[in-house]
Amino acid sequence: MNLHDLQALDRAHHLHPFTDFKALGEEGSRIITRAEGVYIHDSEGNGILDGMAGLWCVNLGYGREELVAAATRQLRELPYYNNFFKTTHPPAVRLAEKLCQLAPEHVNHVFFTGSGSEANDTVLRMVRRYWALKGKPEKQWIISRENAYHGSTVAGMSLGGMAPMHAQGGPLVPGISHVRQPYWFGEGRDQSPKAFGRACAAAIEARILELGEDNVAAFIAEPVQGAGGAIMPPASYWPAVKEVLAKYDMLLVVDEVICGFGRLGEWFGSQYYDLEPDLMPIAKGLSSGYLPIGGVLLGDRVAETLIEEGGEFFHGFTYSGHPACAAVALKNLEIMQAEGVVERVRDDLGPYLAERWGELTEHPLVGEARSLGLMGALELVADKASGRRFDKRLAAGNLCRDLCFASGLVMRSVGDTMIIAPPLVITREQIDELVALARRALDETA
Ligand code: PLP
């Protein structure tokens, strides 16, 4: 089947996620047919450096035969069985053990899901169940942040703080309250980063007091906001948030769906920021995206309550801990350990990206170039001296993204913020190539 036939069928029958369906019809999709290492290839034979690791997930890169072998072996042996009631299977159990070895010390249990969104649905239920079991059912409110992303299910998007998502699809899940995000470049430049980070933490405390501390169940946040724009909070933010949370009887949920599994140069973002979460939703890099799997890691305080006092938890998914997905995830983690992937991000690739990416600060279109581990962002500005943004937000970012894609690099745009999160197995030479392609796209955008 040729490209045009495929594009026509795509247009006729396929609605893409997070896409203007009509605009897609006019242009036609670029069809990705295969991938190897850090490159995807389209149906025209073009190689494209995948600066987004798919959707922040293909951490080990494409074409890892060991993962394919783990999947096929498991599909032959036991393609499906569930973990409901009193059955389980080896891949789920072994993956649970491995995750608890890698997670912070107080984390010793996992509940599997099929995705990050399902993980956050599970979080919402666990948080409220926990407080009900503690005899405090009035603790219902969950504080989240504007512009956070926690998934696309109704609970996930309600926990998230994406205004365009909230504007579609009717009432949100009640009992979720959003506070300002620690996005210094976008919202805090009238203060120092330090003062702004503290002010954002103070906003959480103010909200706790407004809602009534007896009514607040949890605070949920990504260590670094991913989909919102690769927003690394000011250094003062997390220590100040920790101080606030320590004063009140509430749970901390750290969404590790993007930051988990090496992205920031530690196994979990919580370890990078020295956080002690009660619940950690995970997905994406857990299996390097080869098969869909997610979960919630539970700290002892929540796990013990749910286990000892909870009785049956009426919650679960057909594919919770799916054998083939679990087998691939386990192999993925074993390879990451054997190859020292996380340490390489921390000690070599992360610092190298920071150096090379930082050079883009000099570009006339760039107001800020920031990175942490293997996640980076560029803030596009119309006027470098004043930092003034473009009048029509979206336009410059989308243009730059399209120019990148046309010239062989996947970068994502969120408004006028350009994002990268390449596979963790990228080499220094490939980082050089990525930076050169990004610079070229910036020149063409200018
Ligand atoms: N949480 C975070 C921080 C995410 O970035 C995402 C997806 O991008 C999700 C949750 C939802 O995960 P999924 O798309 O697997 O449902």
From TrEMBL:
Sorted UniProt keywords: Aminotransferase, Pyridoxal phosphate, Transferase
Lineage: superkingdom: Bacteria
PROSITE patterns: AA_TRANSFER_CLASS_3
Organism, scientific name: Litchfieldella rifensis
Segment forming the signal sequence: none
Pfam hit, one: Aminotran_3
Family to which the UniProt record says this protein belongs: Belongs to the class-III pyridoxal-phosphate-dependent aminotransferase family.
Name assigned to this protein: Aspartate aminotransferase family protein
NCBIfam families: PRK07480.1
Keyword Transferase: yes
SUPFAM superfamilies membership: PLP-dependent transferases (SSF53383)
Cofactor: pyridoxal 5'-phosphate
